[in-house]
Amino acid sequence: MKNFLSEEFNIEHLPQWFCPTCKIGILEIGEKSADIEQTAESTALRWHPNYDHEFVEYTINVILKCNNKKCCETVMSVGSGHVDEYHDYSEKGEEIHEYVTLFKPKYFHPSLNIFNVQENVPKNIVNMLNKSFALFFCDSDSCGNRIRACIEFLLDELKIPREFENKKGEVKRASLHSRIENLPQVYEKIKTLLLAIKWLGNVGSHGNEGLTKKETIDAYEILKVVLDIIYKPSDEHIFDLANKINEAKGII
Ligand SMILES: [Zn+2]
User: Fold this and answer.
1) Which residues pair with 50 in a beta bridge?
2) Which of 75, 114, 116, 117 has the most beta carbons within 10 angstroms of its beta carbon?
3) Where are the domains of the chain?
4) Residue 152: exposed, middle, or buried by beta-carbon count in 10 A (0-12, 13-18, 19+)?
5) Which residue has the higher pLDDT, 123 or 89?
6) How far is the CA of 163 from the centre of ligand 1 (A)?
7) Domain covering 114-252: architecture
8) Which residue, among 150, 73, 155, has the nearest Cα to 112 in the 3D structure?
9) How far is the centre of ligand 1, averaged over its atoms, from the C-alpha of 230 (Å)?
């Protein structure tokens, strides 16, 4: 997941993002598949006496294709860009000086999976997770809020009520914090993890500081562990199979 922390990428050397559809192919940029247009604001600055590459701002549209021949999904990405000056030395000690276009993606459609979930994770949690993935590049606060919503759905799946009755007999909405605290003993291990995601989600909802990609990645890493613990695929059928083979002392 850490490879998603970068804000911008050399348009000539994009990362090896996995295809969100088949999950095994790599997204590749075809020839002439990046539409790069200078913004009106930076174009208007061309008259400026000090105009150079630092004034250039782009709007960029990239068409990516999955390289898995059985999939060939198309993913579109839109974002901004600018020009960066690059200095280095070759192995022969010659100075290398070139300009590179850096791409800062804002949206992907279909959205990239920041991580893959187990097949048996309930659909409503996966749907909310996908909504968070769609927001990952453009709005970290809203993304964090969606990750927090995944926890609410997870608690629904674990049969922790969203409402409670107070001493006056009134039905009130239970806070996420109290729902987490109400988890039975068997889930004690994941309480700490869920509370951490809740706190990060709260910053996204109400905090002045605001979340960054680093915190949303932190929240995803914690959530992945939670989902792996709760929805770990059962290996009982493999033990059953092995027992039957052993009983038959051969094929069954
Ligand atoms: Zn694919």
Assistant:
1) none
2) 114
3) 1-112, 114-252
4) middle
5) 123
6) 42
7) Up-down Bundle (1.20)
8) 73
9) 28
Give the position of tokens 């250039």: 56
How many C-beta atoms surround the C-beta of residue 195 within 10 A?
16
Ligand 1 centroid from CA 20, angstroms:
7
User: What's the pTM?
Assistant: 0.86
* Residue-level pLDDT at 21: 96
Average pLDDT over the chain, rounded to whole? 91
| Pairwise pLDDT comparison (233 vs 172), residue with the higher score | 172
Of the two residues 234 and 244, the one the predictor is more confident about is 244
What CA–CA distance (Å, rounded) separates 237 from 174?
38
d(CA 110, CA 21): 8
User: How far away, in angstroms, is 69 Cα from ligand 1 center?
Assistant: 8
> Rounded to the nearest whole angstrom, what is the distance from the C-alpha of residue 245 to the centroid of ligand 1?
38
Say if residues 132 and 143 touch (Cβ distance below 8 Å).
yes
Confidence of residue 236 (pLDDT cuts 50, 70, 90): confident
